[in-house]
Structures are given as C-alpha cells and as structure tokens.
C-alpha cells in the first residue's frame, strides 16, 4: 500500500506460506476455497503517544506482522467466524441489522476475540444502512502479538470492516476506510483516536507516516538510514478495552480542554472537546499552551464538584455531555498532568519530524533524546507505563540506546532507536539483562 488516498489495491499477497496454510484450513472447515483474502498490518508508533485523540499529529509506521482474513461468501445472511489459533472459540451470528449485533465482554470484563470482528462488521453494516447481499464465512490468522501495543485489535477491526465491504462489492478510499474503522472500534468501548487505522491503510514501505487530522492526511517521513527501530515486548499484556484506564485519560484531556477554553474566554460549548481545538481557537503556539496550563490548571487533583463549578454546569450534564459511561463514577481527575503531556508530546513530534528532514550529524542522539523524553512524560505525567516497560527503557539506557513505550501503555512493548552497528549487542543485552535475569525466560523467538 502507499500513502496516497486511493482505493485499496487488489493484488497478490506475498506471504505465501501463511496464505497457503490459511487457504487449507478454510477449505477444511467450509469445504471450498476462500473468495478472497484481506491483509492489514500492525503498527509501531515511533513518537506521539496519547495525542491523536486530542487532535495532534503522530508518527507511526506499519509492521510486517499482520492480520490475514480469508473470506467466503454465502447467500444466507450469517457471519461464521473461525481462528487459526484454536484457543479462540468459534462464533456464529445472524446478520439482520447492525443494531442487533451486540458486543459484550466476558465475565472478567475483557473483550472476546471476536468482539473486534463484530466491531468491524457492525460499523460496515451501519455504513451500508443494513443493505447487504452476502453473508460471510471468515477464517482469521494473526501474528501480531495480542495486547502488546502494536495494534492487533485495530488491525482486526480494520480487516473485518474491509472484508465485509468487499464482500458487498463496495469500495472506498483509504482515508474513508481509516475514518470509518476508527469509528467502528469505539463499539468496543474505548474512545480512541484514529492513528492505528490511519497507518493500517496509509502506510508506505521504508518510512514512517506523519499523520494529521481534519482532514486526515499522511505524509511519508524518511528515517535515518543507519537507524534500526527495535521493538521489545515487556511480557506484560495490556488490553485497553478491559479497563477504564484509557478512557479516563481521554476524559481528563477533554475536561482540561473545557477548562482551558472557559478560563481563556472561548465559548464553552460542545464544539470544543480537544486540546488542539483550544490551541487553534486561541491561535497560540504549543509553548503558549504549556504556559496556559501552568496558569489555569495549577492543581494536581481536581474534584468533580470543582470542575462543575469552573464550567458552570451540573454533574448530570457533565456525565452525559463529556464523560464516557465507564468514567462517570469518578470523583477526582488529574488535568494539569495530562494536558502538559499532550502539549509537550505534540512539540516532540514536530521536532522529530523537522530533525528527520534537517539530518544533523548527531541525528540519532537528538531523535533518541526526544523518544526518551516521551517515555518520561508517559511515565510521570500520563502515568501509563509499567515496571517492565521502565526496566526495558532503563536497560536500554545503560548501553546508550534510547527507548520509549509504544501504544497505549500499561504493558505491551517498547520501541528503541538503535544505531545499526549496535543492534546485535543491544538485542543480546535485552535477552540477558531483561528476559533471562528478570523474567526467567530461556527460549526466544526474534522476528
């Protein structure tokens, strides 16, 4: 795929071994070969964490690891789901209307694996206004580690949405698909931005993408040729749909935006819900916004009652106009810390992009310092790191490599910027100092 806003290409998928295996298990299960196969990659975000839903640009790139979806068409309007991984149960459901598709968590509050498929299907059916001609038999194969911060869930939602549309002979541009898939994933309950879906559809080979919003655009960013980005798993899984941690941060950013708007004299209406909208309305620099946060959000903790007084609104209105269902019970919020992270992280993204184009002699050190700064902010201000992530970052630092958590956090992976000549030494250090010494792992598979 390339980053241009065009239809998704219909082409031969080159991952022949996985494709052949998927063809075989599909035929064994359903008795015929699939009509087509969809491939959607995972992603690693190099810098720009937790700011896409605040309206700020991010800098991810796609991974080789991907979701493959083999699809067969049926006259009966039914969805039959299977997974190559046999620990995931089979699932069948009728396709009457998108309103009838219910997405329920398991007894522990975690999403079933097929919930993400249902998000894509439900979103596609809503877009099609329930006008569908084919049911689907689907077999899924994914090699993106789940709950790792590498967008396995978003890739599955996107692959399912795209599969369903193609089965109904409907095609859309890449940016249209990315936007609709981002909306569809919110059926799972998380109020995320659109980064994962945008990079899934707009990625290009050998570069990252500088993704901006309103309108959605992706600009390729050439990374240093002597840089290797190493992704290392913390062995702590983090499913952002299983808790309200992610949504709490989203709501704290919204509340911060509302208060900054009110305190600076901007009309406090429903049009202002992101920190970037406040900046744009004031026509301020990011540095100006940091100063406004210090001025108007000085406290470490704000109670719900205080927020209602500042915004001159009722708790009931706050609950229904701003907060998500799984955050309405909260009585305290951290606003200053979240807003500072967003504005400072947005600054780091802009600096990273500029440095990539300027190519100073010490480019790897300068870019790496920005990544280290990002992790410190995520650890201290956004409070979404994990002791394993911090240990990986500290272990990296000891051998002169900069690293940061990537993805939502609370587990998952780090991404490290490593000089090419240091890669073997660095990977060996991670194996010995983190995986063996601290995690008692003695068998490794390195992709």
TrEMBL record:
Keywords: ATP-binding, Kinase, Nucleotide-binding, Transferase. Pfam families: GalKase_gal_bdg, GHMP_kinases_C, GHMP_kinases_N. It comes from the Eukaryota. Residues 121-202 form the GHMP kinase N-terminal domain. GO terms for cellular component: cytosol. Residues 25-72 form the Galactokinase N-terminal domain. GO terms for molecular function: ATP binding; galactokinase activity. The keyword Nucleotidyltransferase does not apply. PROSITE patterns: GALACTOKINASE (PS00106), GHMP_KINASES_ATP (PS00627). Residues 366-418 form the GHMP kinase C-terminal domain. One of its GO terms (biological process) is galactose metabolic process. PANTHER family: GALACTOKINASE-RELATED, MEVALONATE KINASE/GALACTOKINASE. NCBIfam families: gal_kin. This is Galactokinase. It comes from Manduca sexta (Tobacco hawkmoth).
